[in-house]
């Protein structure tokens, strides 16, 4: 099932006083593009690193994701300085289920940013775009993402096997946010 209506961006940034989730801006493109080449991010994502063309179209693609209702891409920013710290995205599978995806910039890791951002996004998802279930999926070897899921109040509900880009079978763990 395809979403019947686009998600509306939050009227104001979502914040817990430490991090904020806000719409992407032109000033965020370079840090996002740089992070897309980070070996740790490359290890876990199938997306290709951003090239010059992807940089030029980054904001238009984010705006189209919102308009189409496919996704809700946001920047994780420092709540005080507004410095971009990473990105978070809610990908809508249908009108009732969405999946959280995120990445924290290398120099910002280890500060508890990802769990804060995931909690904020999952809370908004259950009240804003009215999804019934928010999932977080991660490779079974990605211990950092497993910790993020657990610290964010998600519980493991299952697993499945998929082939990566090289045809290697990988086990993906599925976590669900506990109801608000």
From TrEMBL:
<dbReference type="GO" id="GO:0008999">
    <property type="term" value="F:protein-N-terminal-alanine acetyltransferase activity"/>
</dbReference>
<dbReference type="InterPro" id="IPR000182">
    <property type="entry name" value="GNAT_dom"/>
</dbReference>
<dbReference type="InterPro" id="IPR016181">
    <property type="entry name" value="Acyl_CoA_acyltransferase"/>
</dbReference>
<dbReference type="GO" id="GO:1990189">
    <property type="term" value="F:protein N-terminal-serine acetyltransferase activity"/>
</dbReference>
<dbReference type="GO" id="GO:0005737">
    <property type="term" value="C:cytoplasm"/>
</dbReference>
<keyword id="KW-0808">Transferase</keyword>
<feature type="domain" description="N-acetyltransferase">
    <location>
        <begin position="6"/>
        <end position="178"/>
    </location>
</feature>
<dbReference type="InterPro" id="IPR051908">
    <property type="entry name" value="Ribosomal_N-acetyltransferase"/>
</dbReference>
<dbReference type="Pfam" id="PF13302">
    <property type="entry name" value="Acetyltransf_3"/>
</dbReference>
<protein>
    <submittedName>
        <fullName>Protein N-acetyltransferase, RimJ/RimL family</fullName>
    </submittedName>
</protein>
